[in-house]
Specification:
With 701 residues, the chain is of the alpha+beta class. 16% of the residues lie in helices and 29% in strands. The chain starts with 15 loop residues before the first strand and ends with a helix.
């Protein structure tokens, strides 16, 4: 223990001016304890032991508290703890209990320095101190408790945390849409376990399933490819920003043409849309009914296959590279997953890019004319794919088919101004985050503008945007500031507003409900799967059941263990296939043991029918008489048999739904157990033999 006389100690956190009168030393400002020590030496104040010997530090045991610590100002107490390999975290706590002000220093050096230590905690008096070192070095760490001011009744604890060892899966029991995973723990102690079951057949988001050949761009006009000016409705603008902030853009409604398209072209192109399903009454063109029926179960995601048609002119205008489309798909999936860093609203809807169709056609490129209608000759099956076309979009940034009026028709899909396609910070003026397509997909899935219809503050399930959790809004917001014409601030952050891209970032929960309703009921064939790749469940011990799975589909399952030190490596993968409950499959007689007038049959069954086995049965016959027995365990003994007679035996098992078919017959004969002599006869025989031997020995003498 190093003691510095309190009369000579100046706390290092306070700059103290010490006048060294009579010593010929100029007064100086001291800002650390080492400066204090030098001045104390100059003053002649005796320091019994400036630095404690390293071997006097006291060993700490992992997680064992040392209590009743006390010291006076300037006094230090030194400890150490040895950190083994594989330790994830070292935590040192000093409980102060409002009595004084000790500080905490932790380092591999002795003594731990007051500046530059691996960890130090120097809170104000009355506060407990904590040091946490993640991934500490293997070896010894020293801990110094230094009294900034006198303290008492402090408690010091050092805790080493290591992640547990990987568990081992012992069995997977299938259930109806579920898998029960049993496992044994690995080394160490775990607080919780997580089972993850992955569907390996699922496609990854953005995976192009068909081979895409981009056109040669060498013949494109360099002037066209490098042009930054914008043209719309007969007017030309120097750049995209000028276009987006122009009077034409706002007054002509060029941000989105969905309502115009659905009022004019859609009835002509989509005269025979698909017949909606029963639940469509919850999301019609005139009302919304929020229902739990339209909430995806936890862990499930609907995936929509996307078919791109890139229409460009002979000079290269309108060309969109595959790289830009892939970047756009990333944005689309992030925003719909609430994974953009701002939103927490996961729609449980994702998108898979399945094909890019490059088409050079100047006629189709001009969307406002007849070519805009004839381009639908390119359409891929609208009941199976979300078709996205890029051309000049007739001057608007994009438009989409509302499912209630056009799902499944020839013109069903989304049309995008080609410049809007891309990822984050793609350079397209005020709409440079790739969110124009997010906005139009919202329409494709049944959403209206947050300000629908303009000039009306109605906010209900039968008026306005047919959604209640978006505030009433009189007119579109074109910038990044909300409006308040209807009282509350408008939803500037909502994807269905006209906000600039860096202001919008989310949907609401009721919008998600309506989108799911529209997708399932109007576009029931337009999604690739109803499951995400991975399903997880957690618990404190074995077994853990993972739910929400698809019956008949194989899942690769693994288990991890977690404690305060981190998470273990994953167990080995074991495959399981959920299925609806059924009677057990046919069992097998694994072994027959013979007995006196009895046969014992050991039974195995590979598939319990996703339910617990409730009984085991065995039947043995000699061709004339039949003998039966049952058991609650997979070992059944049939009695009353005749020794030496051959019996043909079969078994069956049952669960709550019924019994399995009988197993293949196996023939065996009961046999009496080998007869053993009583022990006293054996003993007498040994003794008699000994007597005979002794007599023979005497005779020979």
């Amino acid at each position: 223990m190093t003691r510095i006389p309190s009369a000579s100690f100046t706390p290092w956190r306070h700059r103290a001016k010490l006048s060294l009168r009579g010593c010929g030393i100029a007064a100086r400002s001291v800002s650390n304890r080492f400066g204090v020590l030098f001045i104390l030496l100059a003053l002649g104040a005796g320091i019994p032991q400036a630095l404690q010997a390293q071997d006097e530090a006291i060993a700490l045991s992992n997680g064992v508290a040392v209590s009743n610590l006390s010291a006076t100002t300037g006094e230090s107490l030194d400890y150490y703890i040895d950190v083994p390999a594989g330790t994830q975290k070292l935590t040192v706590t000093l409980g102060v209990n409002d009595n004084g002000d000790p500080d905490l220093y932790v380092d591999t050096r002795f003594p731990p320095p007051t500046t530059g230590a691996a960890c130090q905690s120097v809170l104000a008096g009355g506060n407990s101190e904590t040091c946490v070192i993640n991934s500490p070095t293997t070896g010894r760490y020293y801990i110094r408790v230094l009294a900034y001011s006198s303290y008492s009744d402090a408690v010091l604890t050092a805790t080493l945390s290591s992640p547990p060892g990987a568990p081992t899966i012992s069995q997977i029991t299938p259930g109806d849409g579920s898998l029960q995973v049993a496992f044994s723990p690995g080394a160490g102690t775990a607080n919780s376990y997580t089972v993850s079951c992955e569907d390996p057949s699922m496609r990854s988001p953005g995976e192009v399933l068909a081979f895409v050949t981009e056109p040669e761009t060498a013949g494109f006009s360099s002037a066209v490819m490098q042009r930054s000016s914008e043209e719309a409705r007969g007017q030309r603008f120097d750049n995209a920003k000028a276009f987006h902030t122009s009077d034409l853009f706002a007054k002509a409604g060029l941000r989105c043409g969905t309502m115009e398209y659905n009022g004019a072209r859609s009835p002509m192109l989509n005269s025979s849309p698909v017949v909606p399903l029963r639940g469509a009454a919850d999301c019609t063109a005139t009302q919304t009914t929020i229902s739990a029926e339209h909430v995806q179960p936890a862990g499930q995601v609907v995936r929509i296959p996307v078919y791109f048609h890139v229409i460009y002119k002979a000079d290269g205008e309108g060309y969109v590279s595959e790289a830009r489309i892939r970047d756009q798909m990333v944005v689309l999936n992030e925003d719909f997953a609430g994974a953009n860093g701002l939103s927490t609203q996961d729609t449980a809807i994702q998108f898979d890019l399945v094909y890019i169709n490059y088409v050079q056609n100047d006629y189709y490129f001009a969307d406002e004319g007849a070519g805009g209608i004839d381009k639908y000759a390119l359409t891929a099956d609208t009941e199976r794919y979300m078709n996205v076309y890029t051309n000049d979009a007739g001057g608007v940034l994009g438009y989409a088919t509302l499912p209630q009026s056009g799902a499944g028709g020839a013109g069903d899909g989304i049309v995008m101004r080609h410049q809007t396609i891309g990822g984050r910070n793609n350079g397209y003026g005020s709409y440079d985050e790739g969110r124009t397509l997010v906005h139009e997909v919202g329409h494709y899935l049944g959403l209206r503008h947050t300000f629908n219809p303009e000039g009306d503050c109605t906010n209900s399930y039968t008026g306005g945007d047919l959604i209640l959790d978006t505030p009433a809004q009189l007119n579109a917001d074109y910038g990044s500031r909300p409006s308040t014409d209807c009282g509350p601030a408008s939803a500037i952050e909502n994807f269905m507003n006209y906000s600039v891209d860096d202001a919008m970032y989310t949907f609401t929960s009721e919008q998600v409900n309506r989108m799911t309703c529209s997708l399932v009921n109007y576009r029931s064939n337009t999604y690739a799967s109803s499951s995400s790749n991975t399903f997880s469940a957690s618990g404190t011990g074995s077994p853990i059941t993972v739910v929400g799975l698809t019956n008949g589909r194989a899942y690769n399952c693994s288990v991890t263990a977690t404690n305060s030190g981190g998470t273990s490596a994953a167990s080995g993968v074991v495959t399981g296939t959920p299925g609806a409950p059924d009677v057990p499959t046919t069992p097998v007689i694994a072994r027959i043991d013979t007995g006196d007038g009895e046969l014992n049959l050991s039974i195995t069954v590979t598939d319990t029918g996703a339910l617990a086995i409730t009984g085991y049965s065995a039947t043995c016959t000699d061709g004339t008489r039949t003998f039966s027995a049952t058991s609650a365990t997979p070992s059944v003994t049939v009695t009353g048999l005749t020794n030496g007679v051959a019996y043909s035996c079969s078994v069956s098992v049952s669960n709550a739904l019924g019994s399995s078919e009988s197993s293949a017959a196996v023939t065996s004969s009961p046999e009496p157990s080998a007869t053993t002599l009583p022990l006293w006869i054996f003993y007498e025989g040994v003794r008699a033999n000994a007597d005979v031997t002794d007599s023979e020995d005497e005779g020979s003498e």
